[in-house]
Write a structure and sequence with these properties.
Blueprint (H helix, E strand, L loop, with lengths): L2 H6 L3 H7 L25 E2 L6 E2 L9 H18 L4 E3 L23 H16 L4 H14 L12 H12 L13 H12 L8 E4 L11 E5 L7 H5 L8 E10 L4 E9 L2 E11 L8 E4 L8 E5 L13 H6 L3 H15 L15
Parallel strand pairs: 3-8
Antiparallel strand pairs: 1-2, 4-10, 5-6, 5-10, 6-7, 7-8, 8-9
Helix pairs in contact: 3-6, 4-5, 4-6
């Protein structure tokens, strides 16, 4: 285990004594000579109300480079959005009250933060086939508003995943079908499992069938609409609300998996998913991931060479934090706090999810 992650797992009392309490702020994206990636904001132009797509091109990279790059890009976006976290391991989180139909949406981020990231979110939309009309509809909302940036009308979590794959090296739709809804590429991965498509980068598995690795995708149906891949197979092609996250770390000592997703409480956030290992099976195979209506029903396995479980610590963004000990320690403190049993956290409250 790396020094970075050993620090995350030190006893809580020692952590409180040795790690600063300040929260790390947003981190600018890395220079291209450190992580050669086009920022999503560079794909669009114009002020809110007039945002237009300028660049849809995706990178085409050998499959051997894709897995680590997917992890690196997801972590960089997490840093740009401020290193925020959601802890789904808190007891009872799966029963957290959800917004009811017709109930007003709460503002998830401040107007200042919304303005800072607006072009990045627009850039995520830009790589999807329907991105232009989504942006135009949002532009009309902004033009009709009083000047404040209104919440995005359409959930952008699938657009975030689409951008990660586009910039990550999966340029062809036969490899990854970018879309404004997760079910499109989930269905592609199921068809790959069934032998109906041959070039797909992801293949769908039931939870517990194969090892989970950084760079894979974990998917759930909204409000527990699906429990298994087999259930979804019966509805291929039918629209459904779902959500997928990128695996960035397996934390077996704390029975959790670290994933990063978009549009989680209006931001790009790292989530801690409760996960139970199959102790009788091969390494990194899990009996269950998530709980209740938030349980993962599909594990989309990336068809690419494995990377080590230190992919998180070795990512350029985390390495860059090492140059600023205060920021690195504050991030460590945040993750240490989430590694403690929920009953020991002062004022612990379940965080929201997307």
């Amino acid at each position: 285990m790396s020094k970075f992650f050993r620090t995350l797992l030190i006893p809580a009392a020692l952590a409180a004594a040795t790690v600063v309490q300040a929260q790390p702020g947003p981190l600018d994206r890395l220079p291209v000579d450190v992580l050669d990636a086009m920022a999503p904001s560079e794909r669009v132009s114009g002020a809110p109300g007039r945002i237009a797509v300028e660049n849809r091109a995706c990178r085409n990279l050998p499959r051997g480079q894709v897995r680590q790059r997917i992890v690196d890009l997801a972590i960089q976006e997490w840093g740009y959005f401020g290193f925020t976290t959601v802890d789904e391991t808190v007891p009872g989180y799966e029963n957290r009250r959800r917004r009811q139909p017709g109930e007003p949406r709460r503002r998830r981020v401040s107007p200042e933060e919304a303005a800072r990231v607006v072009h990045s979110i627009a850039g995520y939309w830009s790589v999807t086939p329907d991105g232009s009309w989504i942006l135009e509809r949002q532009n009309r909302i902004w033009r009709a508003s009083s000047g404040a940036l209104e919440r995005w009308r359409d959930p952008w979590s699938a657009a975030f995943i689409s951008w990660v794959m586009c910039e990550g090296g999966l340029s062809e739709s036969t490899e990854f079908q970018r879309a404004i809804a997760h079910y499109v590429y989930i269905d592609q991965a199921i068809e790959a499992r069934d032998g109906k498509v041959s070039e797909a980068a992801f293949v769908a598995h039931e939870v517990g069938e194969t090892a989970v690795e950084p760079g894979d995708l974990l998917c759930r149906g909204r409000r527990g609409s699906y429990s298994t891949v087999a259930e979804r197979r019966e509805d291929l092609g039918e629209g459904t609300r779902s959500h997928c996250d990128v695996v960035v770390k397996l934390d077996e000592e704390n029975d959790r998996i670290l994933v990063i997703g978009g549009n989680v409480r209006g931001s790009v956030r790292l989530k801690f998913l409760p996960a139970r290992l199959d102790t009788d099976g091969p390494a990194n195979v899990y009996e269950s991931i998530g709980r209740g209506s938030r349980a993962v029903f599909a594990h989309l396995k990336l068809q690419a060479p494995a990377v080590g479980n230190d992919a998180f610590e070795s990512s350029p963004t985390i390495k860059a934090l090492s140059a600023d000990p205060g920021s690195l320690q504050s991030l460590q403190q945040r993750l240490v706090e989430n590694a403690r049993p929920a009953a020991t956290r002062s004022g612990s409250q379940p965080a929201g999810g997307g």
